[in-house]
Amino acid sequence: MSEGVPATIHLKVVTPRRLLVEADVEAVFLPTLEGEIGVLPGHRPLFVGIGKGRLRHRSGGDEESVAVQGGYAQVQPEKVVVVTEVGEDDGSG
Question: Taking the domain 9-75, which CATH number applies?
Answer without folding.
Answer: 2.60.15.10
